[in-house]
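User: I'll paste a sequence; please echo it back and then give the predicted structure.

Assistant: Echoing your sequence first, then the prediction.
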Amino acid sequence: MSVLKVSNLSKAFGGLQALADLDFIVNSGEILGLIGPNGSGKTTTINVLTQVLSPSTGEVMLDAHRLTAMKANQIVRCGLARTFQNLRLFNGHSVLDNVRVSQTIHCPTLLSRLNALPMGPERVLRLEAQELVERFGLGKRMHALAGSLSYGEKKRLEIARAMATRPKFILLDEPAAGMNTLEINWLQSAIREIRASGVGILLVEHHMKLVMDICDRILVLNFGKKIADGPPELIARDPAVIESYLGKAH
């Protein structure tokens, strides 16, 4: 079983303390929700975990790997993938090619293992990419340009592309944003399938029904500090969480 461990993580931008002494653990096959008001530090947390931003203090460990000492591509090779709140697809390339690009992160070691297979490495990689495209409901758009997809379809492609790196953990940054009810229902099923495969998930999301229905635990941030951490039923009744984020109506 793999573990993603965050210890004493802080990030300051000049005089602004975006994160302060953040600690949490995500285990294989677990979904940890990360919620809080806008500006509370949720996306900053993902950016620091993936070295888009360097932490001011603290460390991030994935099993024995100290991610805070690595570059972004090395972090992905260790098994940590992510999606982006602002989509970063290759819009001028096909859906399939967007997924295949992510497979190259492991090519130096992956090809050496696949060379012995009868169908050959290129065939294996293409089949794996096609299966991911089908799995995320984009089979009929496989050869369409990514830029021609609807917003919900682009969100699905972002997740498929992240999964093509064969992650141990995936960080989902507001995957339900801009989705309709049917798409959110699909997303919920897809996230559960990812968890069932043994991948740990950190879910940043404002859609509270999705968070409460699907997460094993929820961590709540406010002004960069952790104010609560526990199962959904306890978080929903926590006075500090209600006051700062959920509101009495929820």
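The first helix runs from residue 42 to 49. The chain has two domains: 1-79+167-250, 92-166.
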